[in-house]
Amino acid sequence: MAQSKDTLIQVKNLTNRFGTQTVHDAVNLDIKRGEILGIVGGSGSGKSVLLRTIIGLNNPQSGEILYRGKNILKTNPKEMAEIKAKWGVLFQYSALFSSLTVEQNIAAPLREHTKIDERMIKNLAALKNALVGLPPEALKKMPSELSGGMKKRAGLARALTLDPEILFLDEPTSGLDAISSAKFDKLIKDLKDGLGLTVVMVTHDLDSLFSICDRVAVVVDKKLIVDSLANIVNYDHKWIQEYFHNGRIRAPQSKGRI
Amino acid sequence: MESFFDIDGNNFKLHGEWTTKNLAEIMQALPKSISAKKIDASNLQTIDTSGAYLLYEKFGTVEIANLSAEQKKIVEVVNSALPLAQAEKTKGLDFVQNIGKIAMEKTEHSKAIVSYIGEFGIVLLRTILNPMRLRFTATTHQLMQAGIKALPIVALIAFLIAVVLVYQGSVQLTKFGADIFVVDLVSISILREMGVLLTAVMIAGRSGSAFTAEIGVMKVNEEIDAMRTMGLNPLEIVVLPRVIALIIILPLLTFVANLAGLYGGAFAANSLLDISYTTFFDRVQSAVKINHFWVGMIKAPFFGIIIAMTSCMRGMQVSGSSDSVGRYTTKAVVETIFLVFIADAIFSILFVKMGI
Fold this sequence. Notes:
The complex is a heterodimer. By secondary structure, chain A is an alpha/beta fold. Chain A has helices at residues 47-54, 77-84, 102-113, 118-131, 148-159, 178-195, 206-212, 229-233, 238-245, and strands at residues 7-18, 21-32, 36-41, 62-67, 70-71, 87-90, 166-170, 198-202, 215-220, 223-228.
């Protein structure tokens, strides 16, 4: 079961159980380099738990998670720290450090993990700030002074600070209006294309799925159903059909709306 | 030590990985002033946004030749955000403006206190006129949390301070052969002052900080706002039960502290001065008048009001972030204890004037 050079992360036989409640029952998932993978599922189905388990915030009952062939559930903290430096995470509510300015938030990974001098750190933070589309004034603001959309962008800038390989996003467009959501999707796609990122995105947003995701993993009945977007939409499962084909979607088949 | 570049006349050749991980090293290795007409990336393994930015800083928009397709994209992404626009420097306030700002803030703060006390008074009056309005469960929860659970610690510190008083007092009194007066000393001190003050300080630290933090987090979570939108008054639901609980608890805990203090005094007098327990309590009954006890007890409910209202008010002022919760909790505990001591001083003067 050798990992091909194209598979960055392999989740094997992962089981998550909380008390008597099983959330994931021996699930498998491959995350391929350069793709945008969407993770969807009903509320409470375990999407966020899956993401949290992969990034190391939750210990599963059993199973393996291989990063470039190495089981990260059994890796020592020092090596894990190096691996984590290659991952960027955007939390659902941005999780910006509330007592630091936006600039200090973005700069935090640089300060902690590198020996780069102050002046350069400020410039790199300003660069990331600009890349996510925030104005220079935002750098000096506190998180409590930002709007929801700006917080997300600041959180994204921080996730991108160390130029990660993989970007994990937890419901990135939740709380954003339709225009901001579309802009955010485009931002992710552009950054992914330009920086060569792999993106794993937990989302409820069908528009995001249809405009930027390559593959979709559906969490349903404690299992994962993973396939390309085109195939998933036609998958024969009651919940999947209801999810993708109920009347709420405006234009499910049109991709690349911006 | 790997080398990251080669300088060959006007050509700058890139080697290895120009990434964030290596940036500090690269910057140290680069000569201070450098210019080149061409940059050659044939030997460049990887470059990320930091590397691309460093190249821009050192060389401006010099063309980079022989970039791979992926590397080219990264350089383009970075270039699209350059040059970095500088934010306008915000002007700070000068000394006089700062004084004005602080004065205004204090005025606003005083107005807020008065309005808070007023609103609370109305809520209290409504509840007195209609006792069914009182949140009974919340009140009893606080009685348990702030009161019953504080019993052991309050008793313990009262006991200990009494022991200390006996030890310290006896050293002086022995010089006059007036050992027995140590009973008066410790009883009057505990009953009038120490019992009630120590209880108040302990409750301020324990429950005062808890109230501020609880209400503060509720504020951050928008729970207080949610109550208001449902037509409920947060002062009635959250603050009043706590105030009433402390009004009941402080006298009761003070009573326990007094008992523990007297016992501690007797214990220390017995072990240090060979004053038997019988002698001790006989003297307490004969020489220590009951008004000392009442003087201490009457202060207790007032301290309770001060602690509860100050901590709750500070909790309601929390806004924005976890940072704010910490700051206001600190303020609450410090202010509460300070106000308790001021009230104690006022009571002392009052009682002296009244001759009690």
